[in-house]
Amino acid sequence: MSKPSIDDYLENGMYGQKQTKPDERRKFLGSLRERIVIALTQSQVREKGVYKEVQDRMKQHPDAKLLLNGNMSYTFLSKYIKLADAHHIPFSMVTNKDIETEIGLVLAYDHAIDLEEIYVQKQSEKVSESKPKQKKSLLSSIKNKLF
């Protein structure tokens, strides 16, 4: 590899360091797909409660780092910040005003781990939400016994 020229220094000064896969980095809050443990969309982060999958992955991967979309309201992100603090996982708010991404949260390493599935596909059961079972009325229980 040849020595960098003056033009290379000027380009680095004007545009920053050259990066591999810049579109992928913009989409995944500065990280690459191969480094991600789990990712949530902005709409999933806005939902009430915390995804159990995120909590489980934080327990399984204590050396990972949490990246949060800084363009989102802090009220939605605070529950995941508290969760990261509870598991002693460092977090960063990533803000890019020029690019809009649908990703709201990423738990990632600084090296490749290449997990097959990083997205939470289904509407999972939330940790902080649990609906108590409704009691059947006396009339409906008698009706069920008779018929």
Rg to the nearest angstrom?
A: 22 Å
Tell me the overall shape. elongated
Mean pLDDT: 87
* Major beta sheet summary: 4 strands, mixed
Order of helical and strand elements: HHEHHEHEEH
| Secondary-structure-derived class | alpha+beta
The strand line-up of the biggest sheet is: 1-4-2-3
Helix content: 25-40%
> What is the first-to-last residue Cα distance?
85 Å
Proportion in β-strands:
5-15%
Number of E strands:
4
Q: Count every helix, treating DSSP H or I runs of 4 or more residues as helices.
A: 6
List keywords for this structure.
single chain; 4-stranded mixed beta sheet; alpha+beta; 147 residues
Summarize the structure.
The chain contains six helices and four strands, in the order ααβααβαββα. It is α+β, with helices and mostly antiparallel strands. Helix 5 links the parallel strand 2 (65-69) and strand 3 (91-94).
Would you mind describing this structure in some detail?
There is one protein chain. With 147 residues, the protein is α+β, with helices and mostly antiparallel strands. It has 6 helices and 4 strands. The chain has a 4-stranded mixed β-sheet. The chain is elongated and about 90 Å long. The termini are far apart.
Outline the fold blueprint:
Elements: H1 6-15, H2 22-27, E1 36-41, H3 42-46, H4 52-60, E2 65-69, H5 74-86, E3 91-94, E4 103-108, H6 138-146
Parallel strand pairs: 2-3
Antiparallel strand pairs: 1-4, 2-4
